[in-house]
Write a structure and sequence with these properties.
The chain is an all-alpha fold and about 625 residues long. The chain is built from 26 helices and no strands. It folds into two domains: about 210 residues, no CATH class; about 325 residues, Glycerol uptake facilitator protein (Up-down Bundle), CATH 1.20.1080.10. It starts with a helix and ends in a 14-residue tail after the last helix. About 40% of the residues are buried.
């Protein structure tokens, strides 16, 4: 170690290696255990302290740490360089993939070339104070820190005064912006430092800028979010935090704060080229807002009282009747022998029209509920002030809703399908389906001799994706203020009248997200199987419980007439419907719950006590999960 260290120190002397600074850093920040790095840092300190040209070495190190490029390194490292998410992603991609001309005198380039790791940053965080005492005199000066803070303030003003955030704030007068005042105050701070005068107050303008930034974050939570808005708010927050740290270190040096900041800078160097980190950060608030919109809808799918239970039952029966006609439409489209693309479009229109009618009339479709209610459950889990009784009551309400709607859908669908088949036979003399088609239909729904389980699982994924589309659409509509824009639009008022425009705005506010979700679900159920099956040869089929119940019911009477429907066949077909429902529910619910928990930074394991209480409640009162308790049945 000594001979290698001696050579490094000699290369740091005037006339030595032009890359001496990087070589010293690389030698200290080795890939060895943290204790080895600490030992190397101590050895370097001792070697310089006993060297005949100690003052020259320390002056060279101090000059390097106080190089003009250090201002940008302190102010910008770890903070996006662009004011837009797309430009920042392109910037990081180009930094990773394209060759670039290296500036040997740039401190930031030096650290980038070192390929710093998070482990090395953690080591800096944990350095003991005595290991740093000898290096205080060569660290960045107060003046340099203030210059870095001023640069950060200028960037914060640029971010805070972007057209995007100004529009979010309601386009207030630019001259009244706290970010302009903050930038001017930091410029005065630099002038005072250069003149040797007392520094003006910088904390009050910074606090005012932070309050304004918090206010902007509150407005975006109320109005809906976009990835771009989230990115710019996160950028502004990072700039204000960096400004506060730099000024704290410049005016009131704190050893632990400086060490922590150094560790943060190294972590930022390690992550600053990561596109995945950029997208993950920008999308987190967006994902949370989408599941919040979904959970707001999910609250409507819980049953707490007898009146709600009856309302859900009535809505599920109506949805079941409509789904029977939808299933009949599917068979009619299949009989037309259309080209794959046209068949897919026809099925998409068939499903979407049916689902949207359910949305407008507030009818309940069982398979739509799991993804919505999962987000509502995640919202309850995120509220740590609520006790387990409230959370268990919500879960029981979700279960009651799912049970009553599933049974209402299935019974109504099967009953109407049988009735239509009987009426069709009386009018035409034959059943809707032939015996051969019916036999094939029952074979396809068998729980073990077909791919029903796989197809029901993929349908569950489609239901989850549709719920995400519904949440995204509701967020987009709120963010763009679409309902209010429709109410005030002069063209719409001329076409529909003032009251008509108001009703159109109300309709958009209530149903836009749900309609978009149902249109996406119709596409996934109708067009995707045709696309994959006819174009790519992947035999994907729809296994949606309500649609499947209607299809199975249409198969029973033709087989009964032909003497081919036994009790075993009937039982297996019912079992196939039940398996489809279970997989539709569990897959979509599990995916939606996982998405919601991740968006809220919750882990299922953190609520183990809730699951224990839930199991205990189910063992003691299983009926609670089927119908509302007696005290709420009044």
């Amino acid at each position: 170690m000594e001979s290698a260290l001696e050579r490094l120190v000699a290369r740091a002397l005037p006339g030595g290696s032009p890359t001496w600074f990087q070589e010293l850093l690389q030698w200290v920040l080795c890939q060895s255990p943290p204790a080895e790095r600490t030992a190397r840092l101590t050895a370097l300190r001792d070697a310089i302290a006993t060297h005949p040209m100690r003052d020259v070495l320390l002056a060279r190190i101090a000059d390097r740490w106080n190089d003009p490029s250090m201002v940008r390194f302190l102010a910008e490292t770890g903070i996006p360089a662009q004011l837009s998410l797309a430009r920042e992603a392109v910037h990081r991609a180009s930094m990773r993939l394209l060759p670039r001309l290296r500036d040997e005198h740039d401190v930031g380039e030096t650290f980038t070339d070192l390929d710093v790791t998070r482990d090395q940053a953690a080591w800096v965080d944990a350095l003991p104070s005595d290991a740093l005492d000898a290096w205080v005199e060569v660290m960045p000066t107060r003046r340099l820190l203030i210059h870095a803070a001023r640069l950060t303030a200028v960037r914060a003003a640029g971010a805070g005064l972007s057209s995007f955030l100004l529009q979010l704030a309601g386009n207030p007068p630019v001259q009244d912006s706290p970010f302009l005042d903050l930038s001017a105050r930091l410029a005065a701070t630099v002038e005072a430092e250069l003149a040797g005068e007392p520094l003006p107050d910088w904390q009050e303008p910074l606090a005012r800028a932070r309050r304004y930034q918090d206010w902007l974050a509150g407005r975006i939570d109320l109005q809906g979010v976009s990835a771009e808005a989230v990115f710019q708010l996160e950028l502004l927050d990072a700039l204000l935090a960096r400004l506060g740290t730099l000024m704290l270190l410049a005016t009131r040096p704190v050893r632990t704060e400086g060490t922590r900041f150094a560790g943060d800078l190294l972590r930022a160097v390690a992550a600053q080229r990561s596109i995945a980190d950029l997208v993950r950060t920008a999308q987190k608030r967006l994902a949370r807002k989408i599941v919040e919109f979904t959970s707001a809808t999910g609250e409507d799918y819980t049953v707490r009282t007898r009146a709600e239970w009856r309302e859900h039952l009535d809505g599920s029966i109506a949805a079941g009747f409509l789904t029977t006609l939808t299933s009949l439409g599917k068979y009619a489209i299949g009989a037309l022998s259309l080209a794959p693309f046209l068949a897919g479009l026809a099925l998409w229109a068939n499903y979407s029209l049916s689902f949207c009618l359910m949305q407008v009339n507030h009818w309940q479709l069982a398979s739509k509920q799991p993804a919505m209610t999962a987000s509502a459950l995640a919202a309850a889990l995120d509220d740590h002030d609520r006790g387990h009784e409230d959370e268990i009551a919500l879960i029981a309400g979700i279960t009651r809703s799912q049970v009553v709607v599933t049974l209402g859908n299935a019974v109504a669908t099967i009953a109407l399908a049988l009735l239509l088949d009987i009426l069709f036979a009386r009018l035409t003399g034959h059943r809707i389906l032939s015996a051969a088609t019916a036999h094939e239909g029952l074979a396809h729904i068998h729980p073990f001799r077909s791919l029903t389980a796989l197809f029901a699982t993929t349908t569950g994924v489609s239901l989850w994706l549709a719920s995400l589309a519904a949440g995204w659409a509701a967020n987009w509509s709120t963010f763009r203020q679409m309902p209010e824009a429709i109410r005030r639009d002069e063209r719409i008022r001329r076409a529909l009248g003032r009251q008509g425009a108001m009703r159109a705005g109300d309709f958009t506010e209530q149903h836009f997200g749900g309609i978009v979700g149902y249109v996406v679900l119709g596409m996934l159920l109708g067009f995707l199987p045709v696309l994959l099956g006819q174009f790519f040869g992947i035999g994907l089929e729809v296994r949606h419980i309500t649609l499947q119940a209607a299809s199975v019911a249409f198969c029973w009477l033709p087989l009964l007439d032909a003497g081919q429907l036994g009790w075993r066949d009937l039982g297996w077909s019912v079992a196939g419907i039940a398996l489809t429902g279970v997989l539709n529910f569990t897959v979509s619910f599990a995916l939606a719950l996982r998405t919601a928990l991740r968006a809220r930074d919750l882990r299922p394991g953190e609520r183990a006590a809730l699951w224990r209480d839930l199991r205990r409640t189910f063992r003691m009162r299983p009926g609670l999960f089927l119908w509302p308790p007696a005290k709420s049945l009044e």
